[in-house]
Amino acid sequence: MPHSRKKFLKQISTGLILASLPSIASAKEKENKTTIDPTDFTGTGAPDDEKFWKRIAKKYYDTPTDYINLENGYYGMQPKPVLQAFQKNIEKANKQGARFARKEYPAIAANVKKQLAQFLKVADEEIIITRNATEALNIAIQGYPFKVGDEVLLNQLDYFSMIETFQLLQKRGQLTVKAFDMPLLPATEEEIVEVYKQQLTPKTKVILLTHVSNINGLIVPVAKIAAMARQRGIDIICDAAHALGHIPFSLPDLGAAYVGLNLHKWIGNP
Ligand SMILES: Cc1ncc(COP(=O)(O)O)c(C=O)c1O
Q1: CA of 102 to the centre of ligand 1 (A)
Q2: Residues near ligand 1 with C-beta < 6 Å?
Q3: Best of 137, 141, 161 to mutate for ligand 1, by most ligand atoms within 8 A of CB?
Q4: Closest among 95, 84, 80, 112 to 15, alpha carbons compared
Q5: Domain residues of the chain, as ranges?
Q6: Which CATH number applies to 133-260?
Q7: Cα–Cα distance between 204 and 152 in angstroms, integer?
Q8: Rounded to whole angstroms, how far apart are CA atoms 126 and 116?
Q9: CB 106: neighbour CB atoms within 10 A?
Q10: Measured distance CA(153)–CA(135) in Å, rounded
Q11: At 206, which helix (H) or strand (E)?
């Protein structure tokens, strides 16, 4: 089942993530509040439906008027209801301090995790919430039980932070990095799978896959590469920082051992 921003906004409206956190709004705040109307998201919203997206942009986003931001890949804009809930909850946590952190926060965090797991179609125990994809992938990479001599396969289109983490482990003598040049314009998914296949050795233990490249937008067929790797006992660590909310995919279908994601690029959350 594909994930989309449209679907996610809809879920937010029924109480997901930050919008679901409890808050006490003053009358004035209520006046200025933008709430998500689920009917805004029914029946329309194809990617090229300009009329639909213009209406959504006007109602839910506070965009700059003096320039057009074409780079949502760094971090995306939070829709107004999400931003308002975020601000309110920051204020609440700041005001109530330890009392909030000890009494209320554990149940809120557990609920957020539960809803996030449902959205990602995985079990609660399968996810940990980190501050961003870099932290998530660093935990996966640095926590992976590499043995001396294990090889990791990566290429020039992978994200520099992940490459550097593997290089760090190589410097510490924990593994060997095998870097190759990915063709910039592969014609088919099969060609990409074949490129990875050609690079494998009996020592390959992990393949780093960047689902959507931040460099040229290449989308690698993670599930197909994972299936090929699995037959050889090789694990996939998948950097899906640019995939969630950007392209349709299902987390379980990727077949990766570990996937690092974020909610602050294409999902529009903090
Ligand atoms: C491909 C890729 N991976 C990982 C990241 C890091 O994501 P985060 O900001 O969530 O740490 C980025 C950020 O731009 C990215 O482009």
Answers
A1: 31
A2: 73, 132-134, 159, 210, 214, 239, 241-242, 262
A3: 161
A4: 112
A5: 5-126, 133-260
A6: 3.40.640.10
A7: 6
A8: 11
A9: 10
A10: 20
A11: strand 204-210
- Residue 269 · residue 245 · CB < 8 Å: no
Q: Determine how many CB atoms are found less than 10 A away from the CB of residue 259.
A: 28
Burial (Cβ within 10 Å: 0-12, 13-18, ≥19) of residue 17: buried
pLDDT tens digits, one per residue of 114-161: 999 999 999 999 999 999 999 999 999 999 999 999 999 999 999 999
Ligand 1 midpoint to CA 27 (Å): 39
Coil/strand/helix, residue 248? coil
Q: Would you state the structure tokens that stand for residue 238, as one six-digit string?
A: 């998948």
Residue to mutate (ligand 1; options 262, 263, 266; most atoms within 8 A of CB): 262
Full-model pTM: 0.87
- 210 CA distance to ligand 1 middle (Å): 10
How close are the terminal C-alpha atoms of the chain, in Å? 24
Which residue's CA is the nearest one to ligand 1's atom 16?
A: 214
Given a cut of 80, whether residue 32 has pLDDT beyond it is no
Ligand 1 atom index nearest CA of 133: 10
pLDDT score for 24:
45
Look at ligand 1, atom 7, and give the residue with the nearest C-alpha.
133
* Atom of ligand 1 lying closest to residue 262 CA: 10
Cα–Cα distance measured from residue 29 to residue 17, given in angstroms and rounded to the nearest whole number: 20
Task: Using the mean position of ligand 1's atoms as its centre, give its distance from the Cα of residue 67 in Å.
Answer: 24
- Other Cβ atoms less than 10 A from the Cβ of 145: the count is 6
Q: Please name the residues in contact with 108: beta carbons below 8 A apart, sequence gap of 6 or more.
A: 21, 22
- Residue-wise burial string across 35-58, b where 16 or more C-beta atoms lie within 10 A, e elsewhere: ebeeebbeeebeeeeeebeeebee
Residues in the chain: 270
